[in-house]
Amino acid sequence: MARKPKGITEKHQKILKFLREYQQNHQYPPSIREIGEYIGVSSTSQINYYLDQLEQHGLIERDRGISRGVRLAHPHHEIVRVPILGPIAAGLPLLVPAPGETYLTDDEAYAVEIARSMLPVSDETQLFALEVKGDSMIDAMINDGDIVVLKPAVEARNGEMVAIWLPAREEATLKYFYKERDGYLLKPANPAMQPIHIPKSEPLEIKGKVVMVVRRVASVAA
Q1: Which is it for strands 70-72 and 60-62: parallel, antiparallel or unpaired?
Q2: Do residues 103 and 180 both lie within one domain?
Q3: What is the DSSP string of 146-201?
Q4: Into how many domains does the chain fold?
Q5: Where do the TM regions start and end (predicted)?
Q6: 124 vs 64: CA distance, rounded Å
Q7: Are residues 61 and 106 in the same domain?
Q8: Residues spanned by the domain of 33
Q9: Are 133 and 95 contacting, i.e. CB atoms less than 8 angstroms apart?
Q10: CB of 207 within 8 A of CB of 130?
Q11: pLDDT at 1 (0 to 100)
Q12: Same domain, 100 and 156
């Protein structure tokens, strides 16, 4: 039985970027070894594992009979750069930047690159990303260091995962949102952690809804 493909990680994104740029510069695909050198993986079996997942997602095509048989399935699809505005806690709430401050560099280098065809929304211009800090969302397959992509929002339905700003506490957090009779419940996806109860008298601002997760994976030794 074929394995179900997992979510797209930072390594997958780097491979897609490399395939696009290499093809543009050389007019032919890179080799498996060159792909491995670019993403920092020397094990060909691990590289093939990533490529198999990308193929199952329909993002690449492979001709296993030739040495340079990996190519983008949609070569003309653009890569979208979503700015990473900074960290957000998925454990204890984390302070957000003060007004006027930003985590972006002058050239907006701090961004995550995503194939447009993978985005679950039609308009990517308003998307932003946050780096998860903490492990309270691990049961939702969101780990410390992962990147969550969000679309701006000021309202949410019960059970949606949102980034929330708590003005009275000057804190932001990533949680499941629930509206209750006497306030709000911000629920983690980790049974070892307690929900955060926010009374109606305390202001709460929803900043965005999570639409995608880009997973960060540890390097695999050869």
Answers
A1: antiparallel
A2: yes
A3: -EEEEEE-S---TT-EEEEEETTTTEEEEEEEEEETTEEEEE-S-TTS--EEEETT
A4: 2
A5: none
A6: 34
A7: no
A8: 10-72
A9: no
A10: no
A11: 34
A12: yes
DSSP 135: S
Give this prediction's pTM: 0.63
Let me know the angle formed at the C-alpha of 57 by 64 and 34, rounded to the nearest 5 degrees: 45
Kindly list the catalytic residues: 136, 175
Pair 41, 151 in one domain: no
Find where tokens 């972006």 sit.
Answer: 104
Q: How far apart are CA 161 and CA 146, in angstroms?
A: 15
Backbone φ/ψ region at 18: left (φ over 0), alpha (ψ -120 to 50), beta: alpha
133, 94 contact by CB (below 8 A): yes
Block mean pLDDT (10 aa), the chain, length 222: 55 88 86 93 92 87 87 72 81 49 49 76 77 92 92 93 90 94 96 95 93 72 40
- Return the residue matching tokens 């880009």: 214
Pair (97, 27) in one structural domain? no
